[in-house]
Amino acid sequence: MLAFILRRLALLIPTFIGITIAAFGFIRILPGDPVLLMAGERGLSPERHAELMHELGYDRPLYEQYFDFLTSAVSGDLGHSVVTKRPVFEEFFTLFPATLELSICAILFAVILGVPAGVVAATRRGSWLDQSVMGAALVGYSMPIFWWGLLLIILFSGILGWTPVSGRISLLYYFPPVTGSMLIDSLLSGQKGAFASALSHLILPTIVLGTIPLAVIARQTRSAMLEVLGEDYIRTARAKGMSTARVVGVHALRNALIPVVTTIGLQTGVLITGAILTETIFSWPGIGKWMVDSIFRRDYPSVQGGLLLIATMVMIVNLVVDVLYGLINPRIRRMG
Amino acid sequence: MTDAILEIQAPDTRPSGMRAMLAEFWFYFRENRGAVIGLYVFVLICFVAIFASLIAPHGPAIQYRDALLAPPVWQEGGDWRFLLGTDAVGRDILSRLIHGARYSLFVGCIVVSGAMVVGVVIGLIAGFFGGIIDTLIVRVMDIILSFPSLLLALVLVAVLGPSLTNAIIAIAIVQQPHYVRLTRAAVLSEKNEDYVTAARVAGVGPLRLMGVTILPNCLAPLIVQAALSFSTAILDAAALGFLGMGAQPPIPEWGTMLAEAREFILRAWWVVTFPGLAILIVVLAINLMGDGLRDALDPKLKRS
Predict the structure, then answer these.
(1) B265 vs A154: CB contact, 8 Å cut-off?
(2) How close A86 gets to chain B, by Cα (Å)?
(3) Helix, strand, coil shares of chain B as percentages rounded to 5?
(4) ipTM
(5) Do residues A73 and A153 touch, judged by C-beta distance below 8 A?
(6) Residue A314 and residue B148: Cβ atoms within 8 Å?
(7) CA within 20 to 30 Å of B9's CA: A218, B57, B124, B250, which one?
């Protein structure tokens, strides 16, 4: 097992270097002068242009710039945002908890609804229940979530007036962040109504971000369950006179969950893609919105740093999923 | 050793040839009711897109200043001229949706064919030659795949400049690694089959070996992937349009229409609802077809 983990870790190094090259390269290799791009519509005098090129280090040879970027990136220095002048690393990790909280809630929402839905669909294969669950899952899977978010806003905020439209918590409440999770912090603050406010802000974004994972998990659970339910040991268990609940809940589900766990792990990329859209719609102050804003503000150090951090995170999560899969399923380990 | 013996298969007695294959495919595809519905809807949308200028009651850019934000006909104050209402500058939503179908299908077609051709060629090279070329290609694809697709497309478009063409290029770049992986995996499993060795011994050159001998046997997963990435491409292009990084107004692209409609969300539900519904219907139809394709082409699932 250790050898398996070490081999996977060793594979990370070239991928990580590649990611740094990619994050570094986008702005420099693709056509366009970075300083002119940042300046946008405004004109720049040639002197100011040269000055900025020098200030930001774009006048040095590419390999030198890259080497600098790599060495400081490894030590956690990703440069400063051109707009706010704050360190990119710091900006990223101030906003990250908001995205993390939203993502965790979305995944919980998806698992809590998706796994039972998949199990029910599998055990009643071909019934109207199965067909409607799978139909709904396909709709969810095909959903343009940016539109889905707008629809929910129209319904719950516009017509029913139940939920707020944007942000993480009402402006009435303020407390210093402790854990970074608004739900926990609002409880810790002890202010009346703060938790309810945080929760009501979280509901719609959670549903929007959780919709595609929910559909994927329900489909995956159903097909994994169907496969497992056809196995001999399930027939044996049934033949021994076990109740359906026990056969399905204990014997089948435990084995069916292996591929489902992997699927859940592989939703990270989906979640970040979703977070970009969800956070934009709900003005959720997380890294998805920050990346979009940085792109629009042509804040290239932030874009570059954000790309690197996000890709590294996806890479690490995928590794953890791989290792976990190896732990649960010994057959994979030897194939490597 | 024992594996080799087990792999000898029963002689194939089914009729051969293209027509027989298509007939067999249709036989399995037809069994999936959802897939057939998806196909009909998709054909209908293609028809609408092709004859958009004949079907649409109005031009997509004509502004009726006397009917700003007119609601759909069935709602109070609706106008029979504008079945689905008008937007903030008085353009007919139905006509814009009909014309918008062209953009979505165009994006899907170009992205899928571009990503597939490039991906398949790279995948064939990686799988066929192996060694350092293979390692290099696999690494590069891993790197592309470690960036969330929409984020990568967003950054690419930001640098290239926001437009529909650049959005198509960016989405194709983001999708092509999936084709590389599939092709490479399929080539690796086919490469050592006897028929390939036989062809090689018979003196078939590497190009012909890759393209004519091996490739047709790797097609099934590629076709399924094509359906999948067709719908993803439409969704991603709409998302880019929604974020202001895809087609630029006044192009009636559905995502761009949604972006323009956002500020009227609480005043005029129809400007927001219909473009999104159009995206959902197209994507759903393609995904239904994709499921049917997978079932029909995946020999493991065939119940015969």
Answers:
(1) yes
(2) 21
(3) 75, 0, 25
(4) 0.86
(5) no
(6) yes
(7) B124
